[in-house]
Amino acid sequence: MPSSTAPPSDGLTPSQVADFHRDGYLIIPDALPPSTVNALLAETNRLLDALDLSTHPLTRFRTGGEDGTDHVGDDYFLTSGDKIRFFLEDDAFDAEGRLTRPKHRAVNKIGHYLHVLSPPFAALLSSSSSSSSSATSADTVASRTSPAAIARDLGFADPRVLQSMAICKNPEIGGAVPPHQDSTFLYTDPPSAVGFWYALEDATLENGCLSFLPGSHRWAPVDKRMVRKTGGGIQMEANEGAKFPRGQGFGEGLKGEESSGEYVPGEVKAGSLVLIHGNLVHKSEKNTSQKGRIIYTFHVIEGGEGFKYDERNWLQPPAEGFTRLYD
Ligand SMILES: O=C(O)CCC(=O)C(=O)O
After folding, report:
1. Which fold has domain 14-313?
2. Which of 19, 225, 313, 314 has the fewest CB atoms within 10 Å of its CB?
């Protein structure tokens, strides 16, 4: 498993960069100190406390399975890119459509503008090891890594942050996420997405940790895309644009590697950061255990010259544009 000790700097060591390019993902243990993990969990719970189900459209988060049909795509979802909204767990409802869990146990995810609208999550974007180490308020959220320094080490010229989410994976009902590539959803031409995924609670085989098909970012093309339909809603469609990042020697010529691919589970402790290449095939299983698994994730795409964010992606930029990671 390509995990390594916390980097000596705010960014990545050359060997971590090499691991990421080889495997398509990288686990960085202890990226967040316990005080920051606690502050972000407290913020997640504060948001859940504020959820008013009496005015909520009861939108459920559905991944739509392998082919994406039946992926959540109502207006509440499609207009959530610059808001904090709550998507409920399918299995939190009975056959008659009644909620069977208290709200704190019924939410699948909270998204998709936490990195701007929630002060503690926003502070994480500008955090670094030189931030204060007592994470008791938004402006003291500390991290042992800096997202901007990591993006720089991965070669981003103008990284833009989008689609931030707290994913709850509640005990007993937290839904599985089927195999997917993040660039299917956040497509730029050529592909450039990288996921930053922070465990706020331990993620284990029992409660639905991530698992990865190592190296699949080198041979798995982004050959389909989740797009907005003209009449409303979303659907999967063949990708007519570039299917691999440019200039890295990746491509379908390497596809023979696929047969040797086996999923590798990424069990991690709270505070770990997992970086995920946008072409990497990954998934997570249903949480059938009694233990929750709250994580926080955001994605970064290249906003620099030569990269086009697709106007049919489900998530469209807010009026102010996608959030710059560099000052
Ligand atoms: O946290 C999970 O279970 C899935 C997250 C994921 O696959 C993603 O953010 O791309």
Report:
1. Jelly Rolls (2.60.120)
2. 19
